[in-house]
Amino acid sequence: MIYRYRSQAELDASLNARATVGDIAPFMAAYSAQSERARKTLQCRIGVKYGPKSAERIDIFPARRPDSPIFVFIHGGYWRMLDASDSSFMAPMFVEAGAAVVAVNYELAPAASIDEIVRQCRAALVHIWREARAMNGDPARIHVSGSSAGGHLTGMMIAGGWTRDFGADGMRVQSASPLSGLFDLEPVRLSNCNEWARLDVESAARNSPLRHLPDVPLPVIVSYAPSESAEFAIQSEAFIAACAARGCATTFVAEPGTNHFDLPLKLMDRESALSRAILRAMDLA
Question: Which CATH number does 8-281 carry?
Answer without folding.
Answer: 3.40.50.1820
